[in-house]
Specification:
This protein is α/β, with parallel strands linked by helices and 251 residues long. It contains 7 helices and 14 strands. Strand 1 (21-23), helix 2 (28-38) and strand 2 form a beta-alpha-beta unit.
């Protein structure tokens, strides 16, 4: 049986075809980037927030500071060098981010659910996500849940503003912001500033009506919504046997 983590990882990996550098977080982004390196993007360079560039780990890291990332890496940079030269220098093709909430413009919340001063849930926070959002050429987001609590009309708190919100505050980011959101129902996409996320693809069995009901704003739908090909046997074998045989993140 194929799990949702496997489906999300495979579909996200395909979106990295033709990309050269990816700033990957731990979890599903690492799975997707590692699988893409074995399939559609053999020259992909994976960069981690700990300063590791061009990682070649013998097995999946459990944190961004896992020592397994260091051995065989192309470079290990200081934080000022990573964020000042690599990110702000415009050398990242795709930033992979996650979030608790996302809105129609691709703004992200990973700080609190509820009121800032008395939150229902306090979340881990952004880390370097704001820099990744502002400086990557584009950002992909993988969301395990597609429901109105995660896809909201208005964020409880804006942790990582996309280019539209940044421009409204007088800041001009260099990247396009969120361009792809991969969910359990399908793929949402936008071209850049001024555009809303719209439904462009569905997993087999999912419907436009389901996606609309699961989204907390009036979801736009592309005129030619495609059906996503399910993970192939070859992709699943690589993911299960080569990328994550110990099921660190696959569940």
């Amino acid at each position: 049986m194929t799990t949702s983590s496997e489906v999300l990882s495979v579909v996200a990996s395909r979106e990295l075809a033709g990309k050269r550098t990816v700033f990957a977080g731990i979890g599903l982004p690492t799975l997707a980037a590692s699988l893409a390196h074995l399939t559609v993007a053999p020259d992909l360079e994976i960069v981690y927030e700990s300063g590791v560039c061009g990682a070649h780990p013998s097995h999946l890291p459990e944190t961004i500071a896992d020592a397994v990332l260091i051995t065989g890496a192309e470079a290990v940079l200081s934080m000022p060098a990573l964020f000042g030269y690599v990110l702000q220098g415009g050398h990242i093709d795709v930033g992979f981010l996650g979030a608790a909430q996302i809105d129609r413009w691709g703004n992200l919340n990973s700080s609190v659910i509820g009121d800032w001063h008395s939150p229902k849930v306090r979340l881990p926070g952004p880390g370097g996500a704001m820099e990744v959002m502002a400086n990557s050429r584009e950002v992909f987001v993988v969301m395990r849940r597609h429901d109105p609590r995660s896809f909201v009309d208005e964020l409880d708190f804006c942790t990582s503003p996309g280019p539209d919100r940044a421009l409204a505050d007088g800041v001009r980011p260099s990247g396009l912001g969120v361009t792809k959101v991969i969910t359990e129902l399908g793929i949402l996409a936008r071209g850049g500033p001024g555009e809303e996320l719209e439904l462009v693809a569905l997993h087999p069995g999912a419907t436009v009506e389901q996606a609309r009901e699961a989204t907390g704003w009036p979801l736009k739908v592309a005129g030619d919504v495609t059906v996503i090909a399910p993970p192939s046997e070859a992709e699943l074998r690589l993911l299960r046997e080569d990328v994550d045989p110990e099921r660190v993140y696959l569940r």
